[in-house]
Request: fold
Amino acid sequence: MRLKNTVAIVTGASSGIGQAIAIRFAREGAAVVVDYVGDADTPAATEMQIASFGGRSIAVAADVSKPEEAQNLIDRAVAAFGRLDIVVNNAGIEKKCDFVDYPLDEWQKILAVNLVGPFLVSQAAARQMIVQGQGGRLINISSVHEDLPMPTNSAYCSSKGGLRMLMRTIAVELAKHRITVNNIGPGAVFTPIDADVEAKPEMEKALMAEIPLNRWGKPEEIAGLAVFLASDEAAYITGSTYFIDGGMLRQSGSY
Ligand code: BGC
Reply:
């Protein structure tokens, strides 16, 4: 077990990539706080899977874009498990819309969840980790779109570009506390965030054509990288993005 005796928070852990990370962390021995937004039964599938192999978790409802709820997430982790070692800022939303028509309220909501959320959760977590004095791990689930433009997705791309510089900046600030900060940049992973593409064969085909490995990524593949970055083996890694995208960022047109 690679995360034995650690306590981890995973935001947006009721589905998709966050769910796979929460389950895998628990399998590796971490006690996991499963953050979710929605009804009380929203995190049930994640919790049941963790319980099925005797893993430890609690579910906490917290909208990461709200300061009190972000702080509560950290407080609940410490109250339940006594400390905090790892945070995965995974919660994210996306809405595609032509730039010229993009509604301001939707733009602000995406920035609030995808960028302000990681700021709030990381800040509260770093304060706790500094008090503990034993370092820590902050991992953001970013995207290839922290670098790659995607027409009709300006809010999402802007939020992920911001997440890249938040990560780089605080990696330097927090290094003296042995808190490492890194991004994972997935490409197209088969999760509910891409339900629109998954439902339309022609859109799916066009997306696959952009991926040299020519398939969707699996949430479990992202979880494997997250375990590594959260583990002791990654103690000297900070300030970088690790892309896991089937070669998407390296594709060069119509080959
Ligand atoms: C987005 C998906 C998109 C994928 C590859 C992800 O970050 O959430 O909508 O298909 O990047 O472009």
